[in-house]
């Protein structure tokens, strides 16, 4: 179909009148009609006009159109528009700072669980319990696991109600869970208040902070993700020392109440997530109408698993994470067992936090220069070094060696985290990225929950963490090897998608040439007979 500018082009005096004013006899042209059906026209106002078998007349024109052949039914719904272009700044910088606080508050507390773990052993360790490390490790590992386990549900709520409402409600729930944990006096109840309620609130507050960034940034998304995820590093650097001072001065329970301040600020930060893309409440029920749930296929969009490269990514990363969270939970206790109280074990978390922040900033910017799915190779390198460093922890008999190991581990931990969202955008596109990230984080919850308790069980029965750290280094190596296939698979998928339209176009041209050849052969004898007369 001709562009709108061509349809409205003024005519000269000698031009024939338009078809709308005086239709000419004869068969209609098939090609323009097909073009009209296949391609809905957009007016200058930006509204979509679905094809209806005849082109929409320009303003001021009316009249009968030549009758065309029967056409395939066309959906009355307008195809989805690509949405507004990300502003690459403006209010987006405020959103970035709010998302940065979210990452800091959520994962700063989670990554500092080693300090809380040691304090919980002292508070709840009355009597000789041979499985005390195993039981106490469940509090921190359940909390981290639930943050990711709830992610598929969070992605559905984010699609339905938008990032702002989900983040605000999540922060409120997390505040209630953390506050109630400060009044609990048994380890079993901590499983619910800290491990489930607080963690679920963190999950509902955390995932919208990843999704909202793609609404405001595209070209700078890698850099912005690096800055946002660096927030957890800043908190991981400072919180261990603050927690140690607070626990020594006011005790565990009052320390948890102080941490509630972080969650309250997170509650306020959620209000900055100004939506730029309409959610299901607007698109399905209308902006002034009643809310209606969209179809089930839109609520649970399992179509992302039809993408082979995403399937490999979604199962390869969880395979690599069975030992990922073990150092964060048990490293403090391992240092206490090996070096006693003569070394400041919080320095190790400081090293992890500093280099993790540096890694997120550096590799987040580097990822912007790596095209397409090849960003996965950064995660492959990250898992290789994380696994290697985990195996090096038992071999360090000098505290300085542990510092070096933690510096390298933190650097590549930051690389792994900061490019998760950009890779998801590359594999599934912006439209499905919310649920793609949700499904991935949900699958990640299993290894993150199971790993630390198993390490604690090995410590209870073997008397040391050596075997636990050796085994923790194996899954990252396996997972990294699996991820190596993603760029190759993704490129093949893109090649097939490019070949399909070319094949369809070639077939159409062949049919057109064949019909032209048949019509020319039938017209030739008629012309010869006319010339004979």
Structural account:
The chain is globular and about 90 Å long. It has 23 helices and two strands. By secondary structure, it is an all-alpha fold. Helix content is 69%, strand content 1%. The chain has a two-stranded antiparallel sheet with strand order 1-2. The longest helix has 47 residues, at 486-532.
The topology string of helices and strands comes to: HHEEHHHHHHHHHHHHHHHHHHHHH
Shape: globular
- Mean pLDDT over all positions: 75
Instruction: Kindly provide the radius of gyration, computed on alpha-carbon positions and rounded to a whole number of angstroms.
Output: 30 Å
The tally of helices reads 23
Assembly classification: single chain
Brief sketch in words of this structure:
This protein is mainly alpha-helical. 69% of the residues lie in helices and 1% in strands.
List the helices and strands and how they pair.
Layout: H1 4-7, H2 30-38, E1 41-42, E2 48-49, H3 91-111, H4 113-123, H5 132-149, H6 151-161, H7 163-181, H8 187-211, H9 213-216, H10 221-250, H11 252-269, H12 280-285, H13 296-299, H14 308-320, H15 326-339, H16 346-368, H17 376-392, H18 399-418, H19 420-428, H20 433-462, H21 466-472, H22 474-483, H23 486-532
Antiparallel strand pairs: 1-2
Helix pairs in contact: 3-8, 3-10, 3-11, 4-5, 4-10, 4-15, 5-8, 5-20, 6-7, 6-8, 6-20, 7-8, 7-11, 8-20, 10-11, 10-16, 14-20, 14-22, 14-23, 15-20, 16-18, 17-18, 17-21, 17-22, 20-21
């Amino acid at each position: 179909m001709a562009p709108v500018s061509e349809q409205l082009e003024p005519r000269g005096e000698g031009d024939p009148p338009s078809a709308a004013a005086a239709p000419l006899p004869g068969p209609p042209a098939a090609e323009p009609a097909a073009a009209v059906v296949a391609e809905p026209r957009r007016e200058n106002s930006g509204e979509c006009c679905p094809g209806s078998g005849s082109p929409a007349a320009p303003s001021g024109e009316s009249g009968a159109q030549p009758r065309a052949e029967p056409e395939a039914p066309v959906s009355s719904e307008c195809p989805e528009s690509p949405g507004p272009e990300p502003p690459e700044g403006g209010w987006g910088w405020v959103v970035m700072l709010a998302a940065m606080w979210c990452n800091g508050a959520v994962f700063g507390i989670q990554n500092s669980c080693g300090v809380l773990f040691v304090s919980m052993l002292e508070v709840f360790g009355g009597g000789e319990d041979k499985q005390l490390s195993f039981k106490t490790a469940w509090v921190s590992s359940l909390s981290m696991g639930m943050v990711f386990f709830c992610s598929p549900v969070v992605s559905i709520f984010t699609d339905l109600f938008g990032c702002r409402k989900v983040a605000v409600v999540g922060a409120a729930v997390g505040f209630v869970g953390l506050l109630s944990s400060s009044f609990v006096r048994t380890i079993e109840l901590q499983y619910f208040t800290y491990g489930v309620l607080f963690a679920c609130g963190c999950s509902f507050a955390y995932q919208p902070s990843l999704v909202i960034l793609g609404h405001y940034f595209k070209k700078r998304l890698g850099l912005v993700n690096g800055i946002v995820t660096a927030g957890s590093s800043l908190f991981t650097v400072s919180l261990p020392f603050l927690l140690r001072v607070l626990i020594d001065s006011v005790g565990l329970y009052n320390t948890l109440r102080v941490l509630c301040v972080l969650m309250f600020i997170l509650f306020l930060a959620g209000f900055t997530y100004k939506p730029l893309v309409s959610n299901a409440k607007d698109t399905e029920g209308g902006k002034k109408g009643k809310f209606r749930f969209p179809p089930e296929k839109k609520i649970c969009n399992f179509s992302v698993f039809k993408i082979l490269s995403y399937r490999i990514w979604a199962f390869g990363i969880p395979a690599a994470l069975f030992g990922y969270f073990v150092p964060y939970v048990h490293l403090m206790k391992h240092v206490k067992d090996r070096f006693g109280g003569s070394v400041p074990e919080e320095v190790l978390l400081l090293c992890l936090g500093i280099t993790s922040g540096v890694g997120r900033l550096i590799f987040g910017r580097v990822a912007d220069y790596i095209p397409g799915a090849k960003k996965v190779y950064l995660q492959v390198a990250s898992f290789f070094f994380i696994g290697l460093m985990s195996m090096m922890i038992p071999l360090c008999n000098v505290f300085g060696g542990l510092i070096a190991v933690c510096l390298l581990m933190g650097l590549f931990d930051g690389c792994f985290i900061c490019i998760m969202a950009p890779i998801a955008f590359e594999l599934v596109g912006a439209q499905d990225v919310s649920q793609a990230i949700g499904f991935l984080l949900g699958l990640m919850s299993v290894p993150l929950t199971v790993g630390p308790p198993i390490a604690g069980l090995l410590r209870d029965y073997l008397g040391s963490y050596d075997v636990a750290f050796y085994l923790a280094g194996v899954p990252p190596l396996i997972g990294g090897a699996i991820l190596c296939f993603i760029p190759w698979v993704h490129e093949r998928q893109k090649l097939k998608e490019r070949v399909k339209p070319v094949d369809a176009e070639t077939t159409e041209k062949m049919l057109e040439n064949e019909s032209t050849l048949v019509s020319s052969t039938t017209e030739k004898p008629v012309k010869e007979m006319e010339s004979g007369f």
